[in-house]
Amino acid sequence: MSLTVEQLEKYADVLLWGVKTARQTPFRRGNIVLLQYDLAALPLAEILFARIIDLGLNPIQRMTMTSAMEKIFYARSDARQLAFLSPGDKPTYKRLDGRIFLHAPDSLTHLADVDPQNIARAVVARKPLRELMDKREQKKLHGWTLCLLPTAELAAQAQMSREEYTAQIVKACYLDHADPVSKWQEIYGEITVIKEWLNAMNVKTFHVDSEHTDIDITPGASRRWLGVSGHNIPSFELFLSPDWRGTKGVFYANQPSYRHGNYVAGVRLFFEEGRVVKAEVEQGEEFTKEQIAMDEGAGRVGEFSLTDRRFSRIDRFMADTLFDENYGGDQGNCHIALGSSYGDTFSGDAAALDEAMKKTLGFNESALHWDLVNTEQKVVTAVLTTGERKVIYEDGMFRY
Q1: What integer pLDDT is reported at residue 352 of this predicted model?
Q2: Is the preceding omega at residue 105 within 30 degrees of 0, hence cis?
Q3: What pLDDT was estimated at residue 97?
Q4: Which residues in the chain come in under a pLDDT of 50?
Q5: What does each C-alpha distance from 52 to 9, 29, 343, 374 come to in angstroms?
């Protein structure tokens, strides 16, 4: 079962709400929006293309590589080809005002026998394009969002029928509501209250304790919590980019992860002085270790996140990070991301956050950003600068 035309129309409404909210400043006629989509997402792409035109914006449409093309690219390219950027990419990304990505993969494991170093080389080569968008976003000149559409491959890997998988997407994105945009606006307001509560605390360290996780996260100076900002549909997480130097302890990802055509499960990371010093991996060990070795910052934490189960209706493993990092279930979830940090979690003037200040404040730099999710029952305790200890998250909910 695929999404109905009515559900696709609602999905388009929510995505446009997302990209407008993420941009923070209104779009103007003539602004450029990049619409990227997998082949199976074409019906939604066509609806969005029409909406973008009707708004007086200029769409650039680009279909992604198929899984067969990806395998050819990563398996048969030489170093020069892996690092190749289209001559028009940098000029385009310097001018992008918005980006919408529609993810609908036809395979999740097609790169399992490809040299992971090739994948890492290509990711590193494309880091400058992401940085161009980040700089525009800091100036409130760019907004982005993304979503997921059901495919037979996703359903199979998540061990669901196509109908069950589609129903999870409808439920998670509130496409079963008469006016899903109003529902998302309501959630935005409710979560804003929690963000304000978190940002009012002076926290020295967050301690996460579950059956297999025992880790300290140092938020660092000049940080703020963000979440439900229009980026990602759906998104219920609240997150910040910590001072990577204060990370210590053990984090265990009990949820599997599909990344760059590889399956990874049972990742246990040991941190000392902010760096991964050991990684134990039940499945996908070689790929995981190559990812962590991608560059100097890949073995450091760039994001710390918590999801409140009262908002998230996701209660099944979806074999896709967008949904899995927003898992609600019975215990919510905590996830960290290895690699790059989010500059917009800086609480000061984003335009002043240059490379020197990022280094001083402990914002991590990397071509990698890999979310690893723990859905175990957990307690998160904030150790305040006064020495007081305060439980902020328990039973999958913020205690505010």
Answers
A1: 85
A2: no
A3: 98
A4: none
A5: 13, 10, 28, 37
Those residues with Cβ within 8 angstroms of residue 166's Cβ, 6 or more apart along the chain or in another chain: 1, 2, 3, 150
- Domain spans of the chain? 5-182, 189-398
Determine the pLDDT at residue 369. 96
Fold for the domain defined by 5-182: Thermophilic metalloprotease-like (3.40.1830)
pLDDT of residue 351: 75
